[in-house]
TrEMBL record:
<dbReference type="InterPro" id="IPR058925">
    <property type="entry name" value="zf-C2H2_AcuF"/>
</dbReference>
<feature type="compositionally biased region" description="Basic and acidic residues">
    <location>
        <begin position="229"/>
        <end position="244"/>
    </location>
</feature>
<feature type="region of interest" description="Disordered">
    <location>
        <begin position="229"/>
        <end position="257"/>
    </location>
</feature>
<dbReference type="Pfam" id="PF25000">
    <property type="entry name" value="DUF7779"/>
</dbReference>
<feature type="region of interest" description="Disordered">
    <location>
        <begin position="1331"/>
        <end position="1354"/>
    </location>
</feature>
<feature type="compositionally biased region" description="Polar residues">
    <location>
        <begin position="1338"/>
        <end position="1354"/>
    </location>
</feature>
<dbReference type="InterPro" id="IPR056681">
    <property type="entry name" value="DUF7779"/>
</dbReference>
<feature type="compositionally biased region" description="Acidic residues">
    <location>
        <begin position="488"/>
        <end position="505"/>
    </location>
</feature>
<feature type="domain" description="C2H2-type">
    <location>
        <begin position="398"/>
        <end position="424"/>
    </location>
</feature>
<feature type="domain" description="C2H2-type">
    <location>
        <begin position="451"/>
        <end position="473"/>
    </location>
</feature>
<feature type="domain" description="C2H2-type">
    <location>
        <begin position="364"/>
        <end position="392"/>
    </location>
</feature>
<dbReference type="Pfam" id="PF00931">
    <property type="entry name" value="NB-ARC"/>
</dbReference>
<feature type="compositionally biased region" description="Basic residues">
    <location>
        <begin position="246"/>
        <end position="257"/>
    </location>
</feature>
<dbReference type="Pfam" id="PF26082">
    <property type="entry name" value="zf-C2H2_AcuF"/>
</dbReference>
<dbReference type="InterPro" id="IPR013087">
    <property type="entry name" value="Znf_C2H2_type"/>
</dbReference>
<dbReference type="GO" id="GO:0043531">
    <property type="term" value="F:ADP binding"/>
</dbReference>
<dbReference type="InterPro" id="IPR011990">
    <property type="entry name" value="TPR-like_helical_dom_sf"/>
</dbReference>
Amino acid sequence: MEARRDSKAQRSQQNLALKAKAPIAANLEDCLQSFARLCAILTSTGAEFDGLAKLADDCLARLASWGHESGTSSKALDHALRFSTELRETTLDWLTDLRGILEKANDGITLQLAESLGFPPQVKDTRPDVIERDNVPDYYESDEEFSIDDYLEVVADIVLCLVNLLPNLLDPTPDVFGPADDIFPVDVTSDIEAARRMFPKADLFIIERLGSASWRRRQHLRLVIQRLGEKSRSRSPQRREQGKPLKSKTPFRRGAKSIKESVSGWMSDTGFSTAPSIFSHLTGFTQTTHAGTSIAETDDAHNVYKEGHQYDIIVLHPPDPPQSLDSSGRPFSCPYCGLEVVPGVQLNDTEDWARHVFQDLEPYLCTFERCPSSHKTYGGREEWFQHELECHRLTEVWVCGNPTCHQAEFETASGFENHVKSAHKEVSPSLLSLMLQSSCRRFSQKPIKNLPCLLCGYICPDAEDIQGHLAQHLEQFTLKTALHDSLSESDEEDENNELSGDDNSEANSLIDWFLDEQAIRVGLSEMNVNKVQSDASGMVRGRLAALGIQDGRSERAASLATNGGSSNAHADLADGKVRTEKSSAQTVRWNCPNPNPKFVGRQKELSSIQQFLTSTPGGICVLSGHGGAGKTAIATEYSCLYVHDYDFVFWVDAETAAGCSESYNHIAKLFNLGDRARDSDGLTVLVREYLTRLEKRWILIFDNVEKWRHVARYIPSNMERNRASILMTARKGTILPQTLPHCHQVSVEALTLEDSRHMLLQSMQPDLAHKDVPSHPEFEIAGQAATVVERLPLAISMVAGFARVSQYSLTEFLEIWEERKMGDDDATQNPIDTIWDIGIQELPLESRKMLDMLSFLDPDTIHHDLLVGDHKEPGLRDLKFLDVSQPRRYQMTLDKLSGRSLVTIKEKAGKPVLSMHRIVQDKVKGGFNAENHNKAFVNALKLVRKQYPAASVVQVPDLPPWDEHRKLSPHVLSLHRSFKATKLIKPSFELAELLYDAGFGVWACETTTSEGIELLETAESILDALREDPNCKLRADIASILGHLLELTGASGREESFRRRQQARAIRDKIFAADPTHKVNHILLQNANNDYAISLLDKNRFDEAGEIFERCFEIYQKWDEEKVIPYEYAKYHHNNSMVQMARGQFPEAIKSVRHAIHLTEGFSGKQWRYWQFQYTLACILLQAGDLQGALDLHLEILSGRLELYGNKYERSTNMSKYAVGAMYHHLGDLPTATDYLKECVEDSSISNSPEEALARARFHLARLYMEQNLHQDEAVWLKKEALEVLEKYRPDLSDTDDIMMLLDNLQPVSGGRFTSRVLLQNLQLPAAQHEPREISRLASSRPISQASMSQCST
């Protein structure tokens, strides 16, 4: 017991020592220990505290992650904040608060559990070894009792505050940002003059920059001297005389050595440095000597050093450390940063010491004139030169990625544009615009040569030389100005230049500089930085107050946290609204509609939304109400009015899955997530994960949600971490699941009478000011007019439009209304129906024709260029008002519609677009007779058909028309929905072709697979209705793409995919037989044969597939040689390698697939197909017995796929994770295998991975758990989930009970089926042991046996 107590006391003393050396790291360690103790207590209590245990675990993980990212855990943050007093103290304040709360939470729950078990209350332990634990600030003591929930809420908020502070911690601004006479009475001129003397050839800007940096550096060193002096005085009984200033000595005078004595060990007899560069091992460059490269060897060396110095050529090095650096040396305070250094632990030799000194002095800075980071200094060569490369030295060019152009680079956009137009005429203008803006812009890969030194003018041959050359200049200047010039100063000068010691006045003067600079560093305005800290600080303070705890921060910390935190708002009396004055650059509003200047009222709804979302981190609010109630308008107003509450506001058109998916694809581009990701589903998961981790506050607004399941997969998890929010508009308020936490519904009712008057009159007269509305002559009658339409915003806008266009007064409108209602047989007709009937009667014919056509298009975004054009095609000639040659006619037609509020003109992506309310669309379509209904649909169809890109004739997905597909597919989907919803529309071959092209676009652009299948199936049903030839080309095209899309659905669609490919092959064969001279027919037939053979591989019918591949290869050889059509040859060699593998011909298989890889890399580089072929090679190596070779290659493939897609959730990337884990299992490394399989299961569970792939990964992970006797309960659950999927498909394999083999067989051949050796060995058994069979055929109806259910290893 005594030994344990002594050990505990020793740990306590060590902790106290750590707090003295690195207080931030020590406080974090205390917090993590308290956190771990709290989590252990909550977990051990069972289900009662299950939710709180999860919250505590989440907070602990976030705090640990913060400690790692900020460098606190490694004590690096204490060093980084050595000159950032305000930021350092603020961080300490938060950690101190957190530690105190955690201690009280631990005490409280321990006492609560003890009382529940009948134990007497514990007496506080006062033994010396536990006093430290109870030594928490007094302001955490409170007589009032609080639940553990309250404490954890405060804990979560403090952790969030620390996370919000992370950008500042990663790039802290020193206390002194620039020279200022009111703080330090020092003239920076002397430093600038020193730089001018040392670099006489340098431009003025770099001279001033060096001088300013030198001045700041010397002030920082003086601060260190002062702090070290204060520490020394606090330990010493001596006190200096009152009023006598402290005599400061620079840190370089330690040991009283002369300069030559200090550097003698680092210099040769000639004065030249013989030591290697102290950063040579960090930069990765080999230090070589070139004539004239070394400062000491340049012609300018004498010019650099000769003025006023007794030595002409000297290379300075950091002075020796104060004492030995071996492990026997005692810790000492570094004279350059003031922190304690432990020899043998942090520093082992003089090279480590030199690196430490330069890290403190930060000698490196940008040498380019117009640099936004010109004030920043760097402590390491790599970070500094990386900045110069990326921001100044590397040239941004446009690169043509076409293989025939060999990565040609163009320095101007016009040159690249001319090249594409001449060499690649098939590229559409919209795609070219995208290539110019982003997809083809990158840094040049050409080496940079002949680089002039901006300090001395010497020409360096390459980047390696210029880095070393400039770095030596900057290091020498830093050592000279901070070391030699300081040594030449007199003691009297030191005393005069010393700090006054008035810390408070200094701190007060520097706070503003600190805040402004932090705002610049993180790319935000001062207001936004303060807002982040103020909001977080205010929330925590409120919770602390609720717990009866006083905030113990100093006034300085409070000022830092709250200064400027509240945004100034002003009341705009002209429109009665309160808006926030805030720069638009501070918040990103993406895809949000523009503010509606006619918006009035709704303060109750807006306040309810704002109060809930502000007080409920991670809250989901639903705006519900009848159509036309103004839900979208309220959501739009909220996104504008409370924009200051968020860093990002995203608007998602959520009526369709395609709309959600498309919105997320755009968000991916916004954050540079989508350039390398291939599939739309993968991008969705990537955006969702990014938003989960984004340490800024954001809100997603989903407009027009019909069902929760349509948007559920787009909702990020753990939104409460960054106080993110979701706002939805929906007609039904019950769309959210009842089990969903943090939900709130706001019902949107009719406008108030007062607000409806304002809306009606200001819509009729846009220039009518808000304050003038009550004096309007029709103010009272406006109330009556609004009341008859039940004060619905949509109906009111239609009344205003009718009155404005027809020039009727509101009194006349009411008379017409009464006449209409008296003659209406349907007394239950709603007001929108009535006002629709009134307004539509006087609509001109052309405007009505345009309105009819618009009702079948996507209502949110109708581009003008979709409507207006040179309509010479049959069927469009009667749309004269849309002809490009008659713009005035089109504008008049549009004015009639927008004037009546039947359509709205808005701006999207900088271009004007039209939109319609869905109720208006429904009203238009509901009033059609059969003939007009079909005619309007056909007009809309022809407009879309004219612009939607036709599918590739030979079904090649290369260079897909992304922009056209993205812009027009919502209209195709709208036409598809309209066709499916009624029998009034006649089926047509033109519609079937459009739906096929759209389905092909889904496959080529890899968007929503289910929608592509639905489009193609409808196209096929149209051909059936038209009784088209069962062997027509369009049927074969549809069947072929359906086969591809169904294959993507996994095992569930594999049999139907096989049937479709069989169908396509049969039709292609007949078409080719009818016309064998047509090259396209021949290409399509061979593609169909190849696709069918691939499906045979999935059925393990390798011999049949091999015969087809050989016949295809014979055709390829007749078409042309390998170098002309490398894709076809690569395809054959890859497919044939799998046949050879199945036959046991491993050397031949390896040779074939390697040849395929070589060809693929030649024509497309290391893209997705290259890695797919490499994956096949790795599987063949495994089957051939080369386990280590297979593992090495799988690791390379995983790395390549992560680099290619930038998305760990992408399907093939997860497939590689499984393969790597399986290989480690084969090699007996169970812990590493477990890590990979666990990550595979986690990522596959939230991505679009097929269920059979997830089932296999789960079962394999369960095996690993059981083999290591780990997580037995989880292993049972994982196995159960896997077997449920296996039972669903029930593959038959000759009565085997090998579950792993059965799960392997559910995977596609090219997608991981052969990541173990057992399956192939079973397939290769002699015929006497088993009959040939199709393993994937669902031939057996017997269920999985109980023995199989209990099995967990092969």
